[in-house]
Amino acid sequence: MQSAADTRRGGFSRVARLLSNNIIIVGIILLTVAVGIMRKNFFSEANFRNLLSNTAIRFIIAVGVSGCLITRGTDLSAGRVAGLSACLSAILLQRLDYVNRFYKGLPELPIVGVLGFVLLICAVIGAVNGAVVAYLKVPPFIATLGMQTLVYGICLVYTGAQPIGSLRADYAGLATGYIGTKMISYPLIIAIVVGMYMWFLYNKMRHGKYMYAIGGNESAAEVAGVNVGKSKVTIYMLAAILYGLCGFLLAAKSGGASVNTAQGYELEAIAGCTIGGVSVNGGVGRISGILIGVLVFELLKIALQFLGVKSEFTYVVQGVVIILAVALDIQKYLNKK
Amino acid sequence: MTENSTPEYRLEMRGVVKTFPGVKALDNAQLKLRPGAVHALVGENGAGKSTLMKCMFGIYKMDAGEIYYDGKPVQITDPLNALKLGIAMVHQELQPIPERSVAENIYVGRYPMKKALGFIPMVDHGKMNGDTAALLKSVSMNFDPKQKLGALSVSQMQSVEIAKAVSADCRVLILDEPTSSLTAHEVESLFKIIRDLKAKGVSIVYISHKMDEILRISDEVTIMRDGQYIGTWPSTELTINTIITRMVGRELTQIYPKRRNLPGETVFEVNGFTSANPRSFKDVSFTLRKGEILGVGGLVGAQRTELMEGIFGIRSHAGGSVFYNGEEIRINRPQDAIRKHIALLTEDRRATGIFGVLSVADNVSVASLDQYLRFRVMLDDKKIAALVRDNINRLSIKTPSNKTLIQSLSGGNQQKVLFSRWLANDPEILILDEPTRGIDVGAKSEIYNIIAELAAQDKSIIMISSEMGELLGMSDRIMVMCGGRLTGIIEGADATQERIMELATQFM
To answer: How does A223-241 read in b/e, with b if 16+ C-beta sit within 10 Å?
Structure first.
């Protein structure tokens, strides 16, 4: 029989384990609280709104990458695909009266039509990623690193490295629009819908089960009759569609786009995922965890900003956090031995 | 007992405790090794044998307990530490570097060095290859030291691992299931090596499930059960039955169940099946009847696994045909086979069977999700939960819950989960590749019961096995392969160990 003391000790060690497994999250939250106490306007509404909309956009790209990570892959092309999507969306939705329009004679296109077209292009890129990984067996790191450069090149040639601005008001309004309060912006709503859909996909649909199975043990999945190739193509394609959606919103939010839009987002997304418990060893990862991971990573960035750390240095901190997150994840796995 | 160990023992482990999340793998375990003796360590799977050895070799850190070496207390913190003390281990799962040469595999981490031009340190390949050749000769193996390790067979690689341990001048040698992939002939040469080492005063720990081998080679036997030390006895005082009884803590009267059915008409036919790989199976033809258990015998390298994986669509074939209920079927990938109600329980549970990080429920349901779709997209969680619960009860799978990660179950229970994965698909043909490999005696007899029960339900079963007793005790007919070819099919009633061996070595 278990004594009360045993139970208490069990509860305590469970809390201790929970804390040590989420040490980065705990650390960043502590840092945030400290910064909040030190800097008065940290807990302001504007700051909070900023946090929410940044998190929303990065969450979309992170859930995209998560499928690749869970199947022991990765997708380094995420940021560039989002960048291409931002440029394309901006080009097709420029103000009609703007003198330096990219396509001078272009009529006013329906926003939904442009979104659909851009997502289609991204889907094709993602499908190519998936097919190269699944059928040509190129390691995902190399395959998507190649795609990253390739897409960047296309984007450079296409835009001529010129920034695209003067977006139509209805398009730009997508990023600033809200329902009820300013907190509940359109991007936030879109992110919530994406999160709910992806949760459903991961937990309630066959595709999700197969994804976890492939990540858990690819050869066993094959023997069990899972169409591994098709699943991977679907995962990379869906991921790219989400990058596309992210880029579309990003251009609207910043009122324009350039070849450098969404630069480095792939690493932020991977960081958000690993902080949120997506294991690089495959087979493990939850949507709720990714949300927490992305949120915490955004908190870190804002906290650094409030501390007056120069934006150049935030890259250094972010790099350290990413390596740390993966190292801790691997340690968890090693401890199980 | 005195404070320090008596020098009677080369190595002594006392009061060893090791806990993993949720399980106490070792609870006050102990082991005493005499110099120049073979000490067998036996117990069911999950009894803690391998864990105890990993503690001795410094792979795991003990939660509590002491190790005495030559009577002095020592701390073994990592494998390098153990090697320096003279402890070497040949792992159950080999860890070779297939792309490098035999010599490099033996000397990896301690390459003989020389100074070029008197000051540039470089690997002395001449010495390394020479030493390797001499070493291999001393343990009566003759491969070219410069040969790529990957070109050798599994059993030859194992011999290289043993040579590596020998070359380290070890004083304690741990052999974890060394004969699981060896032929009878290779076992003999391994035993010769063991006797030579024994004569040189090496203490040997011999872990095996094969009782006859244990009684032949060992001087003492330590029995473990559920992480605890049961006792140590001289081998001469033990019989197979006494060992098994002490291992499982109960009597095992009848291992193989009585068959309740006779095979019916032919349901499955394979004709002239030939691999795309010229070194693999060639021109194999056989039939399978309803409710039949067809045993498949042969030595390692007979290409039995490859043939079955070829039929199941994991490996490609260049020629031959498969008929199911008189109709030709084409199988190019596992999905095709599954659609025809064929199931394959693979040989290597960990590599191609279980999803370690997923729950028991996910492991059971993964191959039959198509049946549980609502509105074509959504999975019916309730039905899946019911399926899992039924299977856990039906095969008496011991698991804390259906959400438990499968990696924390014992080998026997993992195997039962894999059985239920396939049974959920209602298969008519079950191909079982070494269905009881690496699982303990108690679970084995449960698996035999499941197999016999399936046959009684008119399922047709192909069972690859390297255990003679299993083949003879379970099969209606036994087909034997050698070097990728079918050498004969024997009726169960006429089958003898000698007849099977004769066919299995036909081309050797």
So the answer is: bbbbbbeebbbbbbbbbbb
Question: How high is the ipTM of this complex?
Answer: 0.82
The encoded tokens of residue B289 equal 């009847």
Q: Which amino acid is at A105?
A: G
Whole-number Cα distances in Å, B344 to B202, B272, B309, B431: 43, 20, 8, 5
Residue B42's CB: how many other CB atoms inside 10 A?
A: 25
| B54-99 per-position pLDDT tens digit | 999 988 889 999 999 998 999 998 888 888 889 988 876 666 788 8
- Asked if A209's CB is within 8 angstroms of B357's CB, the reply is no
Low-confidence ranges of chain B (pLDDT < 70): 1-7, 21-23, 45-46, 92-95, 154-155, 180-181, 249-254, 508
> Chain A closest CA to B62's CA: distance in Å?
13
Q: What angle do CA B54, B57, B63 make, to 5 degrees?
A: 60
A334 touching B (Cβ < 8 Å): no
CA atoms within 13 A on the CB side of B214: 30
Q: Find the length of chain A.
A: 337
Chain A residues within 8 A of B335 when measuring between CB atoms: 225, 227
Strands B38-42 and B203-207, by their bridges, are: parallel
d(CA B102, CA B465): 30
8-state DSSP, A42:
G
Phi-psi region of B197 (alpha: psi -120 to 50; beta: other; left: phi over 0): alpha
Give the DSSP H or E segment for B12: strand B11-20
Strand partners, B491: B477
Q: Which of B367, B381, B407 sits opposite A225 (nearest CB)?
A: B367
- Smallest Cα–Cα separation from B291: which of B339, B259, B337, B323? B259
Instruction: Enumerate the residues of chain B whose CB falls inside 8 A of the CB of residue A336.
Output: 20-21, 407
Q: Are B344 and B337 in contact (CB under 8 A)?
A: yes
Kindly determine whether residue A217 and residue B20, on different chains, have CB atoms separated by under 8 Å: no
- Rounded to the nearest 5°, which phi and psi values hold at B177? 50, 55
In the sheet with B327-329, reading across from the earlier edge strand, the strands are B284-289, B266-275, B317-324, B327-329
Contact yes or no for B456/B293 (Cβ under 8 A): no
Helix (H) or strand (E) holding B26: strand B23-33
Q: Which residues of A173-190 are buried (b: 16+ CB within 10 A; e: fewer)?
A: ebbeeeeeeeeebbbbeb
Q: Does B405 touch chain A (CB under 8 A)?
A: no
A204 and B338: CB-CB below 8 Å? no
Q: Which two tokens stand for residue B483?
A: 């070097």
What's the whole-model pTM score? Answer: 0.78
The alpha-helical segments, DSSP class H, found in B325-410 are 334-339, 349-352, 360-365, 381-394
Contact B366 A210 (CB under 8 A): yes
In sequence order, which residues have a C-beta less than 8 Å from that of residue A12 and are 6 or more positions away?
Answer: none
pLDDT of residue B274: 96
Interface size A-B, in CB pairs within 8 Å, comes to 79
Interacting residues of B28 by C-beta distance below 8 A, sequence separation 6+ = B15, B16, B17, B228, B229
C-alpha separations of B212 from B43, B208, B218, B383 in Å: 14, 10, 10, 47
